[in-house]
Amino acid sequence: MKAYWITPGPAGTAAELRETPTPEPKPGEILVRVRATSLNRGELLGGKPGAPARPGGGECAGEVVKVGDGVSGVSVGDRLMGRCAGGFAEYALMDAREVMSVPGRLSWDEAAATPLVFLVVYDMLVAQGHLQAGQWLLVTGVSSGVGVAALQTGRALGARIIGTSGSADKLARLETLGLDVGIRTRTGDFHDAVLKATDGQGANLAVNNVGGTVFAECIRSLAFQGRLAIVGHMDRTLSAPLDLEALHSKRLTVFGVSNRLRTAPQRAETVRGFVRDVLPYLEDGRLRPLVDRVFAFDDLPAAIAFMESDAQVGKIVVRI
To answer: How many other C-beta atoms can be found within 10 angstroms of the C-beta atom of residue 12?
Structure first.
């Protein structure tokens, strides 16, 4: 089969198309014929100089080709989406504990744009963030894949949304998805605007997609008993000062959102929660993934360059 191997690095991510053997599912795994996959910034950021190339792609949507021993409830031909190993390829393996059926309303492109960002958003808005209807959600870098999914999910949950972006055009586009307040900025200078929008109370939950350069401002912008989710570092700044007075006087909560150190059962638990609490919104049309651009498989390097240009609003999909 054809598969892309990627080599992340400080200057960008290189992608090499190779002929590789089609993988065989081990016990508990499912082999799918990939119909579409999508790009995720976390996979493409950074990388140690000299690191070896590896299969690229962490999520996809496709049809079941073969199942490993011990897998039940899945049949050849079923439409599935989820995390995967090596999604930038014609075939990929999925852990049966983490697969989800593709809702009938979703195209292959939309299905491929769903798993990672919406699972991350479920983790930080619902499982850890306890976002309630009527509360204020602040999303920095709101035009990113995670940012748009946070906006959409927060709106579906009944929250009011404030988003930051350096582009007025992107903020205007997101108003149609329910963005209540758009703040044009790329730096940590949004505290006053957040307080003005929330009648001086601050945000109940903030999502930091940007990194250390806006961490302090996120803390300043939180309401009493506010929560701050750390999910990205697009600015590549991995440290920031912490206002301990604000932390303890306002009884704030700061938490991280990452699957890197989680066990397979822990990831599966998040999938089950998402299927229970959020997937119905995708099934009935209340949520629909925002796909900015679709690239052909042969153009995957161009898709990576497009992501690295930071021009997108929502997800970038590659159709196999």
So the answer is: 13
CA 60, CA 153: separation in Å to the nearest integer?
20
CATH number of the structural domain spanning residue 169: 3.90.180.10
86/3 Cα distance (integer angstroms): 8
pLDDT over 70 at 122, yes or no: yes
* Cβ neighbourhood burial of 221 (10 Å; 0-12, 13-18, 19+): buried
Domain membership flag for residue 9? yes
Between the CA of residue 224 and those of 28, 159, 192, 247, what are the distances in Å? Answer: 45, 17, 16, 10
Burial tier of 156 (Cβ tally within 10 Å: 0-12, 13-18, 19+): middle
* Tally of domains within the chain: 2
Measured at the CA of 209, the angle between CA 93 and CA 259, to 5 degrees, comes to 35
Instruction: Judge whether 279 lies within some domain.
Output: no
Phi, psi of 91, deg, nearest 5: -135, 150
> How confident is the prediction for the chain on average, in pLDDT?
95
Residue among 160, 168, 170 nearest 194 (CA): 160
What value does the mean pLDDT take over residues 279-302? 97
Q: pTM (2 decimals)?
A: 0.94
Same domain membership, residue 171 and residue 105:
no
Cite the beta strand spans of 84-186 per DSSP E: 91-95, 100-101, 136-139, 160-165, 181-184
Whether residue 145 sits in one domain with residue 92? no
Residue 210 burial (CB < 10 Å; 0-12/13-18/19+)?
A: buried
Are 174 and 215 in a shared domain? yes
pLDDT band at 85 (very low <50, low <70, confident <90, very high): confident
Residue 74 belongs to what domain range?
2-114+289-319
On whether both 95 and 134 belong to a single domain, the answer is: no
| pLDDT value at 189 more than 80 | yes
The domain boundary, picked from 231, 256, 281, lies at 256
